[in-house]
Amino acid sequence: MPHTTQTHSKLRYWFNGAYAVFEKDVRLELRSRYALNMLLMFIASTLFLVVVSLGNEVIGTRVQAALVWVILLFGSVIGLGRGFVSEVDQGTVLLLQLHTRGSMVYAGKLAFNIVLLFLLNVLALGAFLLLMNISVENLWQLALVLFLGTLGLSGTTTLLAAMIARTRNSGPLLAVLAFPLLIPLLMSVVAATNTILLNGGWERIQETCVTLVAFAGSVISASVLLFDYVWRE
Amino acid sequence: MCGGSDLAYNLGYGLSFSQSNMTLVVKRIKIGIAVWMTAVILAAFVLSAATKLPILEQTARNLYFHVPMWFTMMMAYFVSAYFAVQVLRTEDLVWDMKVVEATRIAMLFGVLGMLTGIVWSRFTWFLGTGKWWGSDPKQMMAAVQLLISGAYFVLRSALDNPRLRARISAVYTLFSVVSMIFLLYVLPRLTESLHPGTGGNPAFDKITDPTMRLVFYPAILGFFGIAWWLFDQRVRLARVEEDTEGFYIQ
Fold first, then answer.
1. Which residue of chain A has the CA closest to B187?
2. ipTM for the complex?
């Protein structure tokens, strides 16, 4: 059937474009390792700051969950802010605009951000658990919450990163824009992490997981709808 | 930018017959709002229905001011989101002006509602505890709304090109609506509230004296009217500024 093949090839064309953007970002990142190294150093030093300031004080699970998520939030906002700014700096925006559609760029960047952020969040959370001497029984639950939180985080920051790339001296602007929007996410993940650290059982975090999936789904859908307005000239 | 040459731009202070007629109607509505609000404020302080409950006592009169301020803030916020859709749809800078002014009104009523709320809660809910801020869901939501409005203005000040500024900041307003809807859903599940009708508390109409509602509902209408009045004035002022200065000072 000619119609389906056409739709199929269109989808394939779109997927190829998105993958090309993703691959380009991965290659550039592996070449310079800027975001990766900076984020690793940021998270390592912030964690160390927390450990040093706490001393031998024993803190409750709620505070632990709050601390680690605030660190992850700051880390991601700092790390993902460069995604589109670097395209502007290198003068490659026009090239991308000519060769790919907006949705491809968004999908590629989003995929890259999710991969980068999830990798870093796993490392950061692992280091935090180690440094604070916290043992977790349900590691897969924690990993799930971490992954869903990362989805929402990347979904929100990718569009905002594209927005701040259009502004002048965009440095700390992303944090100002992103934090108010991330509050529902932060509240959910902190509550879920707290429950997991207290070993509260799957039933109690189930609803939060559904909320996180819905949050990620709606911010990503909204971003897809709004991205073209930010991207085109 | 546009120099105010096209007709649609001048609507509201033009001199043709139908427009001046319109201005007259608007003026009469505004006089109506002034009379209405004067009556509401008088009734709020004169009627004695609200003074019977312990702890609450005379402070119950704050219901007529504090709650309508929140309603006005939320309405102004959602109206600004509607204007943001129009910005993206039409690329007309008039709509951008309206987003700014609606956001500003939302911020103003948000700050007023927060001040009246903080003082009210300090001497009722937190009587004897010395607390000023208890992370109540509605309080948090209002605080987040104020943060979003603040971020909106910071974003605007970082953009120079008027068309780009209109578009990007409209995208931010719409994107924030998604997050706000989630906040509305998430907050009641994760935090406890002392407000009526939430967290197992009795609903508003169960604990509020019926005569109080006679003032409360008109007060909501009155505050909406004041918000519209302020909005209308700000938009007209912005247009005059644009005509005289040649550009729109945000």
1. A184
2. 0.90
